[in-house]
Write a structure and sequence with these properties.
Low-confidence stretches: none
Structural class: mainly beta
Helix content: under 10%
Strand content: 35-45%
Largest sheet: 5 strands, antiparallel
Radius of gyration: 15 Å
Number of domains: 1
Number of helices: 1
Distance between the termini: 26 Å
Mean pLDDT: 95
Length: 134
């Protein structure tokens, strides 16, 4: 099996990937507005002068949209074809692009999902599964 694509880890997203290693999903939260965001950045998109912190998420959300890839764009995904790429709205508000475990035919808009973690090379990657699945 070819290697999976790996994230470029930098000082701003390192706390996110460190949390994933512990199977925790974290996002940044604005100290002024309380709103959360993803992907990580050095300033709050809601109040650029505000302090911010990292908060642990519930790991639950819903599917806003998805697509199923049938073409091999990355060698590391060749054995997974066809695979999905989904836009998940976390219950805390931020949007996250990820994969949904299970049958592509079972995915639907508004579907409730919860986070799982999958080892891909050097990192644990947050993926999602239907909220009712074990």
């Amino acid at each position: 099996m070819a290697d999976m694509p790996q994230p470029a880890i930098d000082p701003w997203n390192k706390p996110f990937w460190d949390a994933c290693e512990q199977e925790k999903l974290v996002v940044q939260r604005c100290g002024e507005t309380g709103k959360a965001w993803f992907p990580p950045s050095p300033v709050s998109p809601y109040a650029p002068a505000a302090e911010w912190d990292w908060m642990e998420c519930s790991g639950e959300g819903e599917v806003l949209s998805w697509v199923v890839f049938h073409q091999k764009y990355f060698a590391g995904f060749a054995e997974r074809l066809p695979y999905n790429c989904a836009l998940i709205k976390l219950d805390e508000g931020p949007l996250l692009v990820s994969n949904i475990d299970g049958s592509n035919d079972a995915i639907s808009i508004g579907q409730k999902v919860r986070v799982l973690f999958e080892r891909r090379g050097d990192v644990n990657v947050p993926i999602f599964t239907a909220a009712g699945r074990s």
